[in-house]
Design brief:
- The chain is of the alpha+beta class.
- It folds into 2 domains: 1-291 and 453-519, FAD/NAD(P)-binding domain; 297-449, Succinate dehydrogenase/fumarate reductase flavoprotein, catalytic domain (Flavocytochrome C3, Chain A, domain 1).
- The protein has 14 helices and 22 strands.
- The strands form 6 sheets. Strands 1, 4, 5, 6, 9, 10, 11, 12, 21 and 22 form a 10-stranded mixed beta sheet that branches.
- Helix 1 runs parallel beside helix 5 (179-196) and helix 4 packs across helix 14.
- The two termini are 28 Å apart.
Length: 519
Amino acid sequence: MTERPVDKKGPSKRKFIQGLAASATMFAIGGARVAYAEDGAEYPVDSKIRYDIIAIGGGTAGVPLAIHGAKRGAKVLVIEKAPQIGGTLFLAGGNMSAAGTRLQARKGIADDPNQFFADVMRLCHYQANPPVMRRFVDNAAAVVDWLEELGMTLPPSDPVKGTGHADFNIPRYISPIGSGRALVARMLPEFLKAEAGGNLRVLMNTGAKELVQSRDKRVTGVIVESADGVRTQYNGRNIVLASGGCLMNKELFEKYNGKPLYSLRVYPFSNGDGIVMGVKAGGHVSGGEKFVAHRGVILSDRNFPSPAFTNIGHELNPRFRLPWEIEVNTLGNRYVAEDSDIDTLERAQTSQPGMACWLVWDQEIYDKAPPLFVKLNKDQQQKAFESHPMFAKAGSLDELAEKIKVPSATLLATVNAYNQSVETKSDPLGRSHMPLPVTKGPFYAVQCLGSAIFGWAGIDIDGDMRVITKEGRPIPGLYAVGEVAGGWQTHGDVVVNGGTVTPAVALGRYLGLTLPAAI
């Protein structure tokens, strides 16, 4: 690759938005050059500085990485495709878990990372990545303490053992007041302070397009494209993929997770760019086989991916509402004890054909059970059962089976077998809560398709966050953190309380503090 000088017109303006407030900042590309790639393409090269850290993504992991890297004197560049800083935190609950925090100490809770590691590996059936999990639990407490110092507030009851999924054996789970947006609001002043101090530069509305590698495969930079289509190359000692997952990219999601993408429910910029770049640089995607579906989303139509019509996930968690209905798959068979714990229910639905389940019940259950559709009033429910493709109502089980397209004989046999279990108070699948049989028409059904709130598959990494090849060899100069590295790293084959936000923030901070820099 050869270089020569190129003229530029001077500084350009970028609008810096954090979603709650906005400020203008100026960026000048000085001493720019043109690089000629082997394919003949030309890219201006910003040779003004070789950055210590280039973070591709200014979200849950990229923000703390930039703050702590710049604070210790490293020269940091953040490349953000969106018009705002914060990424998926604008949609996330922001729930976190950590051991050995000051919060726990104030409440007299004895805990430490060793207990946390043993507990969380047990919960995820030892399916997570042990070195990454170890790094996460060792750095989690410092992050929670830091966020508290920045003004994060919590409910008086926190920490708790859990709220929805499997509980920890010690209270270490927190739910920040204001959810993920509150975390952005707490970190943003520190981010702006780092930018004002001169060690942090931010490129908004700018997409990373490809990584630059030397002949020995070391990643040495990134080529980006601005909103007006101008491409520029930036060079750095350490390139960090922190660009999120691929839940807005149906083809990529299904390729690597092996499951259909039914609903687009997440951050609009989660399109998998970092995964694509990591693979092109020699990285390996792993973890898709551990994917676990989120339950309870009722979609608007069958033009997948489809928007959500309503969500009954809370009502399908026996911790909050014991089941009165039965669940059948597309073959008409029950497949799980409906009052099992949420992790069992999620894995069971994930393994069904098409990750699909129908809830089936009768009029007496409809009249007597706790509400299933808490977000829909009676008129909305009636209209849904008349015309919505995911709802069905019929005078007989045969007619219901025809409407929901399951074998009539199988559905009838399934309901009869369940009714017998209600009578004998003994269910072959192990269900205990069986208040009423399904006998009195009209009969009802609603379909919930397994959906995704984060991706299990991602660029594989080692315990130092280095991107590795399929053979386990680190790619020099390239790191990955957050969802781009795959949720399986810290979730295994379940949803671990706090296992998404906390490791992204903690490991982003860890890289900011430890990546080599010419300080």
